[in-house]
């Protein structure tokens, strides 16, 4: 036997254990659900590994989880004969919460216990939930296929450290003993444990057993026959059939919800789910869930996502991302196929026609679920959009085949509602379009306020034309891939000509042409004054209350796309803007009357800098702009 070693927990683990030990969970009994769920996973993993190495069963292929309690000692033991762990595996898995992102997780903790417990619930802490009820946890484990003297004993009081030593264990698998706190001894009761297993673990496909004591023999009497003694035995407490193989009519909502919590380690109920068995060219069963809340690490690039993969009810892998596109990475669930080989590997999955067909089918299934939700329960769909809308916006760029369907699910803020809430669909917009309107108008800005108050909206507001207001970082990326919807082109109000078409009457067009002719001299003077700071100077019809604006020319990158590329580390040269003047504004009229060429140049520069600030939200040289503005203010005071 090796010497006992003491290891310190990661700092983040210590913080989490502290939160748990101080009873953040109002529902403490979930510790058993988490530990049974982990034990069932260990059995599933052994079943899969044994497909290629039958020796791992060590002559015992009856996989199960066993739970026992000792009232006198105040302990609960959860034991499985699954895959087990090596010494390195124990140190890695029981000393660390997750492989990545733990620091980000703790940045999100607020210090408000009720909020933090909800966040921990989204994190899915599994094994660590033992410390909700126990002041000491002992783990004895041996990996399948290893010698009896290569087992490991892990022990911790859940404070600063844990100990590890090598021991001897005849049977493979893991045995976790919880030494209950004095005020949690209620869990050392067989009846209490049975009721928790029935409540939370009925759906697990591995038998979850408890010991049932035997009965003594009863001698015959005049009124009754003799009853022989019965031996005590382990009896399953759950149905032990894979939930997804049962008919939908036999599965209750509560069972679906508990199964979701088992596979996702989420503590909240799912928003909705879909259970389907498909027969025909491909035979498979899918059980797909949409969570109610986004996981805290949804944007972590290292975060694993995907469906659990089973082949003919045998677990093959977690996080099989090949079956779900990245923009639907929030979907939880499983797929059980009859058509994939049992010894399937990730390499085979990446190049397999069956995989492609299944991915196409489950993607359509999820989009159908969301379309149905949006149609039948707008409020519930809005809560989904608030959590996952930004991820769904990746869809049009990633999934060309379903671009139109994904676009139909998108929601935006709009000048029609006057709210920052993104609750307007493209279909809603088209329904409200003016007679003669052929385009969907939108603006992308740094914030909702910047979009809603942009000078580019002035003439559209005047004509009561709706504009979609976009202000999330991904919006510019989205709009580069979503150029039309339902036959209507999307048109940026900050780009080139507004192209109002039939929305302009003959009188307006005539007045604009007259204004343009009358302003030719002003336009030339401004262009000569600004030189190569602008690509072009024009008279604008899009402004009513603002003196000038800048727009991107056709084929040029927009301001938002430049910002996006620069944030990604790309060196993007900024194009020279088109400078548009509103001749009917008093400041521009004042500029037109200015005879002093130096003052004219300064006014032109000031208007350009104002327009750039309004469009970009910042300037390359803000101090030069302030200096110029102060200079002009002083001149006007004189």
TrEMBL record:
<feature type="binding site">
    <location>
        <position position="38"/>
    </location>
    <ligand>
        <name>ATP</name>
    </ligand>
</feature>
<dbReference type="GO" id="GO:0051082">
    <property type="term" value="F:unfolded protein binding"/>
</dbReference>
<comment type="similarity">
    <text>Belongs to the heat shock protein 90 family.</text>
</comment>
<feature type="binding site">
    <location>
        <position position="346"/>
    </location>
    <ligand>
        <name>ATP</name>
    </ligand>
</feature>
<dbReference type="GO" id="GO:0016887">
    <property type="term" value="F:ATP hydrolysis activity"/>
</dbReference>
<keyword id="KW-0143">Chaperone</keyword>
<feature type="binding site">
    <location>
        <position position="34"/>
    </location>
    <ligand>
        <name>ATP</name>
    </ligand>
</feature>
<protein>
    <recommendedName>
        <fullName>Chaperone protein HtpG</fullName>
    </recommendedName>
</protein>
<dbReference type="Pfam" id="PF00183">
    <property type="entry name" value="HSP90"/>
</dbReference>
<dbReference type="InterPro" id="IPR019805">
    <property type="entry name" value="Heat_shock_protein_90_CS"/>
</dbReference>
<keyword id="KW-0963">Cytoplasm</keyword>
<feature type="binding site">
    <location>
        <position position="85"/>
    </location>
    <ligand>
        <name>ATP</name>
    </ligand>
</feature>
<comment type="subunit">
    <text>Homodimer.</text>
</comment>
<dbReference type="InterPro" id="IPR020575">
    <property type="entry name" value="Hsp90_N"/>
</dbReference>
<keyword id="KW-0547">Nucleotide-binding</keyword>
<dbReference type="InterPro" id="IPR001404">
    <property type="entry name" value="Hsp90_fam"/>
</dbReference>
<dbReference type="InterPro" id="IPR020568">
    <property type="entry name" value="Ribosomal_Su5_D2-typ_SF"/>
</dbReference>
<feature type="region of interest" description="A; substrate-binding">
    <location>
        <begin position="1"/>
        <end position="346"/>
    </location>
</feature>
<dbReference type="Pfam" id="PF13589">
    <property type="entry name" value="HATPase_c_3"/>
</dbReference>
<feature type="binding site">
    <location>
        <position position="80"/>
    </location>
    <ligand>
        <name>ATP</name>
    </ligand>
</feature>
<dbReference type="GO" id="GO:0140662">
    <property type="term" value="F:ATP-dependent protein folding chaperone"/>
</dbReference>
<dbReference type="InterPro" id="IPR003594">
    <property type="entry name" value="HATPase_dom"/>
</dbReference>
<dbReference type="GO" id="GO:0005524">
    <property type="term" value="F:ATP binding"/>
</dbReference>
<feature type="binding site">
    <location>
        <begin position="100"/>
        <end position="101"/>
    </location>
    <ligand>
        <name>ATP</name>
    </ligand>
</feature>
<dbReference type="InterPro" id="IPR036890">
    <property type="entry name" value="HATPase_C_sf"/>
</dbReference>
<feature type="region of interest" description="C">
    <location>
        <begin position="564"/>
        <end position="638"/>
    </location>
</feature>
<keyword id="KW-0346">Stress response</keyword>
<feature type="binding site">
    <location>
        <begin position="122"/>
        <end position="127"/>
    </location>
    <ligand>
        <name>ATP</name>
    </ligand>
</feature>
<dbReference type="InterPro" id="IPR037196">
    <property type="entry name" value="HSP90_C"/>
</dbReference>
<keyword id="KW-0067">ATP-binding</keyword>
<feature type="domain" description="Histidine kinase/HSP90-like ATPase">
    <location>
        <begin position="27"/>
        <end position="184"/>
    </location>
</feature>
<dbReference type="GO" id="GO:0005737">
    <property type="term" value="C:cytoplasm"/>
</dbReference>
<feature type="binding site">
    <location>
        <position position="174"/>
    </location>
    <ligand>
        <name>ATP</name>
    </ligand>
</feature>
<comment type="function">
    <text>Molecular chaperone. Has ATPase activity.</text>
</comment>
<feature type="binding site">
    <location>
        <position position="99"/>
    </location>
    <ligand>
        <name>ATP</name>
    </ligand>
</feature>
